[in-house]
Amino acid sequence: MTWRRERWSADHSLPIGVTKRAQVGELVRAGDIIAAGATLAGALRVPGARRLGLSPADFDRELRVRVGSDVVAGAVLARVGRRFARSVTAPIEGRLLHVTVDGDLYIAPIVDRWTVRATLDGVVARSDDAVVEVEGEAWCLQGAAAFGPDAIGELTLGVDGPDADLAPSRIDVRLGGRIIVGGARVSAEVITRAHACGVAGLVAGGVPPAGLRVVYGDAVTAAGSPSRGDRPTVLCLMGFGSGALPRAVFEPFAALAGARAAIHTVSARLFVFTTANIGRVETPSPDVALTDDRPVATPPVDRADADTDESETEHEEPAQSDEELTPSASDRSPRGRGP
Question: Edge-to-edge, what's the strand order for the sheet holding 70-71?
């Protein structure tokens, strides 16, 4: 796990119902909207040509709303006549989805509107109804797992050292919209407090598994849980529990603090957009062991004390007794008895 500055790509999956998306070759910045759409419920069928007394071919000429447009309840969809006009109106607010060959209309209510924002400064390399891919150059740090939606904000140090835990008292509304580096560990209390204060995302060495279940539910897994909507964003760099960040990983955060950054949760990557020199970027990180949240039941035994105990045990003589052991009646041999 090292810092690297090179050209990266970030895929942004799109839900069903895309109405707008960036085109291939378009320049974007992290945080720009690259796609938008709506989530629809079950469609309602509205009689059209039959109500107006027209043939399906003539009905298309009288249609006043294009397919795919949003309409409000009571909006006129088609109309004929002047003095004795007849019209078809929308019974609900929603989107005009389809016109059948018989001249009927399908309108679906809109239950949610969504947007997808870029997590990388660069150019759109692919754009279709399934995914928008952006390619660009940035500093990048690969994590172990990420949870929540993508996040974009200013990178901010929240701890004084790589082995420190982020305290809840250091989170307030002044950090809203920022990505905070939380050191070795962030707890469930820190995650929920940061989300309530409007913090964009958290980056830490580890997160307690129990805390993840409290925040994201029992269905959360170690592979991460990218999602949409109003959820906290957390990037685990080392794993789960508590893991002090190596110096080669933590020290560059000081040089990168204040720069724009983004968390791409699908790939569990942290992108930082700056040309700052962070020094030894290719230094491999040392072996790191994650510590469990539970306290150790017994302290470790010193090796010298253990060797002393073993030597004393080896030279210890068996206990001697002055009493003579007399066999019991049941142990005496029957041959010693007279006839």
Answer: 44-46, 105-108, 94-99, 70-71
Identity at 6, one-letter amino acid code: E
DSSP, collapsed to helix, strand or coil, labels residue 252 as helix
For residue range 83-135, what is the model confidence (pLDDT) as tens digits? 788 899 999 999 999 999 999 999 999 999 999 999 999 999 999 999 999 99
Length of the chain: 339
Residue pair 95/71 in contact (Cβ under 8 Å)? The answer is yes
Closest CA to 146 of 213, 217, 214, 239: 239
* Residues 151, 232: Cα–Cα separation, whole Å: 9
Residue (of 184, 208, 205, 192) closest to 148 by Cα position: 192
Q: In angstroms, rounded to a whole number, what is the distance separating the alpha carbons of residues 120 and 31?
A: 8
**Whether the model pTM is above 0.90:** no
CA–CA dist 310, 50 (Å, integer): 100
Q: What is the pLDDT of residues 55-76, one digit of tens each?
A: 888 898 889 999 988 999 999 9
Residue 234: what residue type? V
Cα–Cα distance measured from residue 70 to residue 288, given in angstroms and rounded to the nearest whole number: 55
| Number of DSSP helices (H) and strands (E) in the chain, helices first | 7, 21
- Cα gap 113→37, rounded to integer Å: 6
Helix (H, G, I), strand (E, B) or coil at 280: coil
DSSP per-residue letters across 52-116: HT--HHHHHHHB-S-TT-EE-TT-EEEEE-STT-EEEE-SSSEEEEEE-TTS-EEEE-EEEEEEE
| Separation of CA 26 from chain center | 27
Q: How many CA atoms lie within 13 A of 222 on its CB side?
A: 5
Domains of the chain are 4-35+116-273 (3.50.30), 42-108 (2.40.50)
Q: Give the mean pLDDT of 37-42.
A: 91
